[in-house]
Amino acid sequence: MKLLVTGGAGYIGSVVAAQLLEEGHEVTVLDDLSTGHADAVPPGAAFVQASITEAGGVLSEGFDAVLHFAAKSLVGESVEKPGLYWSHNLGGTLALLDAMRQAGVNRIVFSSTAATYGEPERTPILETDPTRPTNPYGASKLAVDTALTAFAGLYGLGAVSLRYFNVAGAYGEFRERHTVETHLIPNILKVALGERESVSVFGTDYPTPDGTCIRDYVHVADLARAHLLALDACTPGEHRIYNLGSGTGFSVKEVVDVCREVTGHPIPITVAPRRSGDPAVLVASSEKIQRELGWKPAHAMLRDMVADAWTASTKPA
Ligand code: UFG
């Protein structure tokens, strides 16, 4: 298939683009490089440096589907700059959907998030559970999911939203590499690499066994594989939503312990106040995608995710 991957110079988009190429698809990456890296675009993909609001020109060349990753994706930043999140994530995606309709491209796989659920009433979270985001990031992604449902009904769009929980690990040389790093595992590994003295633990007074937030980590290679299944499952007139996690939660302190084991570094921690917008516990049920699309995580152990991230981060970028 001829596929447009928006945000294909970012962490997850580049891994999906690489897997699509391995499967023999023709891939064009569209990325404005505001947070992505040109050298993350896999060899073999065409590259267009542009914003999603300018996707019309590229799409008019004729594509079978779009895999849409380009977005602002930091919970903390979204609380500080909500307008940025609404304009990029909702405004940008609506412009992309409009351009797709004009170009007659009617299939999309959308990068949604566990942040759409907010503070869950129960865990593991099911796709049918209430969506009450606790930050503008989750709210903007939820708004896109709502638009996709409407567009599927109105215009016959075939859409699949994948609600990621916490993505970790690396795929060969493709790894997480943000200019301003806010994510837990890369920040911990920076300590082991000697780039930071300690890692801050944001909040130790949450209602969890050790007082730190619990998250569900999924390996980026497994997550990427789900996009290929989702692409095949895009059915005109339908919008499907699937969670993607491993079903097991790890607290911030437990993640630090696993990183200590993998790296052999003591990794000192500093207790810091809670980060606003963070729910206490986010753990997914991924039973639906396993049942309906046959997705099966091959690297469900947090240790393996950390080990792959560690190996990739000790190589030059
Ligand atoms: N944390 C720290 N110290 C750090 C970084 C993070 O204690 O230096 C804590 C956070 O407060 C949070 C946990 O580690 O409790 C995980 O934080 P991340 O920033 O790694 O990830 P988030 O859970 O905030 O967000 C990620 C993605 C979102 C997605 C969400 C869903 O970035 O896109 O997972 O679970 F919505």
Automatic annotation (TrEMBL):
<keyword id="KW-0520">NAD</keyword>
<keyword id="KW-0119">Carbohydrate metabolism</keyword>
<comment type="subunit">
    <text>Homodimer.</text>
</comment>
<comment type="similarity">
    <text>Belongs to the NAD(P)-dependent epimerase/dehydratase family.</text>
</comment>
<dbReference type="Pfam" id="PF01370">
    <property type="entry name" value="Epimerase"/>
</dbReference>
<dbReference type="InterPro" id="IPR005886">
    <property type="entry name" value="UDP_G4E"/>
</dbReference>
<dbReference type="InterPro" id="IPR036291">
    <property type="entry name" value="NAD(P)-bd_dom_sf"/>
</dbReference>
<keyword id="KW-0413">Isomerase</keyword>
<dbReference type="InterPro" id="IPR001509">
    <property type="entry name" value="Epimerase_deHydtase"/>
</dbReference>
<protein>
    <recommendedName>
        <fullName>UDP-glucose 4-epimerase</fullName>
        <ecNumber>5.1.3.2</ecNumber>
    </recommendedName>
</protein>
<comment type="pathway">
    <text>Carbohydrate metabolism; galactose metabolism.</text>
</comment>
<feature type="domain" description="NAD-dependent epimerase/dehydratase">
    <location>
        <begin position="4"/>
        <end position="245"/>
    </location>
</feature>
